[in-house]
Amino acid sequence: MTGLSRVLAWCTVAALLVLPASAWDANAGLVPPLAVSTRTISVSTNDAAKQNIIDGNDQTQWQSGACFPTGFIARPEMNLLLRVCNSSTPSPCTYPAGSKTVDSAFDNSFYTGAWIAKAANGIASISITLPQPTDIYRFYFRGSWNKGVARLVIQQQDGSTTTVVGNLNSTLAWVDIKQIGLWQGVTQVQVVSNDSFTLTELAAQYTRCFEMATLDMQDVFAVHVIRARWWSTDSVGTSLSVSADNATWTVVRDDLKPDNLPSYDFNFDPPVNMRFIRIRHLVNETGDWRKVYSWEIGAYGAGGRWGLPPQPQQQSRSFRQLMGVNGIWGWGNKSFSDTLVKQGKGPLLYNAVASSGRNYQNLNWDLKKLGNDPKWDTMNKTGTDGQWWLDWDREYGAWKKAGIPVSVTYQWDKFVAPPAAWGPDPYSTAYNLGFKFARHFGPTAGTGNVASFEAGNEPWDGFNATFYGQLLRGFTDGLYAGDPAVKRLPCALQANEPVYDGSYIGTRLPQDIAPKIDAVNTHVYSFFNLDNGTRVAVHPEHYGSAMNSLNNMIKWRDTNMPGKGLWVTEFGWDAARPGEDCGKSTECVSQLAQAAYGVRALALFARKGVEQAHWFFYANDDGCNTLFCRSGLRDTYTAGFGEEPVYRAYRAFLQLAGASYFKAIAAETNDIYAYVLSNAAGTPTHVLAWRPIPVGESEQPSDAAAVQFDVGFSAAAAAAYALNGVAPSGSVAAALPSIAGSSWSMMLSGVPTLVVLSA
């Protein structure tokens, strides 16, 4: 079949497979907040921007007003004297007969005012008697005292009289006067003069400056997670409170970091019934124009913004088939892998833990200029167009020979290949490159060295959705025309954050391209933002772990591309070796945790139906102290690529149960995760169980607990192994469970235990 006829055939199939427009949902992975269509938001100030708090966009925000210099005057909860003369009957205000528009002195307007007449005794005054003794923090007023000398006087609970401001004369006419302090137990406020005067405004601050945003869901819900994003360097205290009735409030936290810019997830276990949610800031009063910001407040049910995981199904791929590793040319050595294999190095160091190797094949290693011939067919003599020495056949042939078939992520960015570099017809440029790639490397038309191709690794910045769509269409069409057996994947995408357009699958993978894709592709790392703004690495079952975004991607895939594969092409944890640290990286765990979390994550992927998972990275990096520098399965080149505990734990697990498949959930609670594994025929062979808790530098007695669960069948246990990666073998013998029928009881910690069932 010619290349053109292949394309026409594929287009015909694609046309038949395109889902009806009504079935396609670009946002299918999103989990909306509770009451998303009926909830309302109220704020202390600046109503104009309040809807930004509930618009579902973390990039838009509400900015409060400022209490000072004059913002507090309009707020009855802060200004004790706002419209005070009409606040009760009889009026608390007294003044001489003949005074005019007295209410205008307390109406939050500097353009209106009260004229206070001089009484028969020669004194002009206005007095406000407070309903109860009250502490005052600030007075703010303006008036005209051209005919005499006035003063602001207060009476206090102890009977004393204090002049707050005196000697108000013509030089201070129409001047805003501010007086800050603490006057306790004030019972009366008075402005008094020896002649008539005009008072345009008089305000008294009696509560501290605060700003707040309150979400009303219009009904009571059982809330599992609140997600909020706020920030202010002008706040001296931030709190979260909830209420079912807007009358009785429960303070969830009163110690939040005011300038915590990243969003934060508050977990409620058990869930809490609530209707109202409030973020409140106490504002620094040492200056004017101090403000706070809120980006988003939302409440979620079970599963939070990730949603619940899918219903479990028997996995179609064994754990060995599932597990892969991210590598690079030469595996950290300065030589081709065919040479390394002869020395027992390179890819041979990883075939015990991986059945697939993902390589970052850089576009600029193949091409000096887009549109050139990459010279793959002659590279054994000429090198590639981009590198005179490069021969991918030598490299990939050795990977395949070592038992690690190659998955390629074809990598570029806006610096290597900006949009302009793709020429006037980006589709054709990508098509030709994809066609040549498949014809040379493909399983049936080429060398057979490459099984899959990703159209980019993370080309999220510098390429809008329309432009990336042209490249993706070109690559997928060209690959299919060159060799239909090459699996076609988009770049790594996510389905839970639409504001990050560069990586959002809802915009990057349009409906017409979906039939041409064999699997969706995502990177998931178990990161979590603490309430102080620091991002850390957590265990994979953590309620707020970004690894849970896999649930959103599964939901999107099941809606729009049912039956297609799901690949996790990057996951992992950083861990420092003894005597080292992770440098600038805060996303770091212990080596024991890295090993335990690695096995636990692989089990979670199998339980969720992931088709392929690649650990990042193959080895630690010399001379590097940032994120991902300590995520290797093996140590650095300088250290001889020694085995890390995570490598040993994976090797032990795959040696013992690599041929097994996820079959069913025996338990999945806050106390225990236990999965039943089986052979290809579905006969149970193992049980993998652990406590879903953090793991520290070493196992502590307090980490272990007796747990009970039901596996759903009767079987005897032949052996048990704790997969801690500490021992050279990667595991140590563990106590067998106590079994009564299908009911099991055993001691477990955060380190997973694999129980081998009797045949």
Automatic annotation (TrEMBL):
Positions of transmembrane segments: none
Key word Signal present: yes
Gene3D superfamilies: Galactose-binding domain-like, Glycosidases
Signal peptide: 1-23
Record key words, sorted: Signal
InterPro entries named among the record's database cross-references: Galactose-bd-like_sf (IPR008979), GH (IPR017853)
Designated name of the protein: F5/8 type C domain-containing protein
Source organism of this protein record: Tetradesmus obliquus
Taxon lineage: Eukaryota, Viridiplantae, Chlorophyta, core chlorophytes, Chlorophyceae
